[in-house]
Specification:
Layout: H1 3-17, H2 22-36, H3 44-60, H4 73-83, H5 88-106, E1 118-122, H6 129-140, E2 144-148, H7 156-159, H8 172-180, E3 186-190, H9 200-211, E4 219-220, E5 227-228, E6 234-239, H10 247-250, E7 253-257, H11 263-282, E8 289-291, H12 296-300, H13 310-328, E9 335-337
Parallel strand pairs: 1-6, 1-7, 2-3, 3-6, 8-9
Antiparallel strand pairs: 4-5
Helix pairs in contact: 1-2, 1-3, 4-5, 4-6, 11-13
GO molecular function, one term: single-stranded DNA binding
Organism: Candidatus Woesebacteria bacterium RIFOXYD1_FULL_43_18
Domain AAA+ ATPase: 115-263
Length: 348
């Protein structure tokens, strides 16, 4: 047996042994059988390379792999309290969502879980839209993949490109399934309002299909060219505002407004959440940094009002970096930040 025939045999075995839908397996085996008759043709190598890449993709997708949901309200509450301060209404909405999932599962109607409206977190930059989605995934015990929509201008980014093109590859939805290795992951569609004006209408058309359970049970990526059931996927979306989102898409979403944070709330978030995480990430011992309570006003708002916590995070990271350098250079074992010396530590 020559090497070309051996390589085709390897692909045939791979297709036969993989967990694939039977119809897709039949199509692939027919195509490989046709390819085996072209081993002496000049077009064999490009055709073989294309087929090999295709089989690599379809055999790695989670056609039947699912993640077991963790539908424990106390666990979900604990996770959200650990990662987020306040946001009571939003946390309650998530707990209600998980409660419905639990009841449906107990009645053996879990397939209907995914008929619920898709959550869409709407708010200004830095208000926690993306992180709350990650907390929901953690609370459910599901893997999560993020698809950024900022600057997206081509629906093929989501749906993939036909294998007729030499450099074709699957779209971001299929790539997300490959990353999560689960048929029921959480997929975060981040900033869906920030697509380009030129591609908006066509991208919104794909979103309608993705978010509609009457259509997404047979989502076809142009590269895979075979229906994939997305009805068990939990989609979560975010947006800065809903003005640029098509009405048909909004009809499938449940918008939840993310509140802006007051200065007092930011101080609590900085003290209880951001500073401990920043110190842990940088390797600073707990006792190496003390910040006076009256200093936090400067850390929270050095240059003016900011609805989110991005500026707060940058300022705390800047303080922590400066303290780390002081410790490494042996200038001190601990640092006390006061209203007199705070400007030495804040990023300029």
């Amino acid at each position: 047996m020559d090497s070309a025939a051996q390589e085709i045999t390897v692909l045939i075995d791979k297709a036969k042994n993989a967990d694939l839908p039977e119809k897709l397996r039949e199509v692939v085996l027919v195509r490989l059988n046709q390819l085996s008759k072209l081993t002496n043709s000049p077009s064999f190598l490009p055709e073989f390379d294309s087929m090999e890449k295709y089989i690599d993709w379809i055999t790695i997708l989670p056609w039947n792999k699912r993640t077991q949901d963790t539908l424990d309200l106390e666990n979900a509450k604990k996770i959200m309290e650990t990662h987020h301060f306040g946001l009571t209404d939003i946390k309650n909405r998530v707990l209600e969502y998980i409660s419905v999932m639990k009841l449906k599962q107990e009645k053996g109607e879990s397939k209907d879980i995914y008929r619920a409206p898709i959550l869409c977190f709407v708010g200004l930059v830095g208000t926690g839209k993306t992180t709350i989605a990650y907390s929901i995934a953690e609370a459910l015990g599901r893997p999560i993949a993020r698809i950024p929509f900022g600057g997206m201008g081509d629906p093929l980014d989501l749906r993939g490109q036909s294998r007729m093109h030499p450099e074709a590859e699957p779209g971001k939805i299929i790539k997300a399934l490959k990353v999560t290795q689960s048929k029921n992951p959480v997929i975060l569609l981040d900033e869906i309002d920030r697509v380009t004006d030129q591609g908006r209408s066509s991208i919104m058309g794909v979103l309608v299909e993705l978010l509609d359970p009457r259509q997404n049970y047979a989502f076809v990526d142009h590269y895979i060219d075979f229906p994939f059931d997305l009805s068990e996927t939990l989609f979560i979306t975010t947006a800065n505002n809903t003005t640029n989102i098509a009405t048909a898409v909004m009809d499938r979403l449940e918008p939840i407004s993310m509140p802006s944070y007051t200065d007092a709330e930011k101080v609590t978030i900085g003290q209880k959440y951001i500073l401990p995480e920043a110190m842990k990430a940088s390797g600073l011992p707990k006792e190496s940094l003390v910040i006076d309570p009256d200093v936090w006003a400067n850390i929270v708002r050095p240059l003016g009002y900011d609805a989110g916590i991005r500026t707060l995070e940058r300022n705390i990271d800047g303080v922590v970096r400066k303290i780390a350098r002081i410790l490494v250079e042996g200038k001190a074992q601990s640092v006390h930040v006061t209203s007199q010396n705070v400007k030495e530590f804040l990023p300029q």
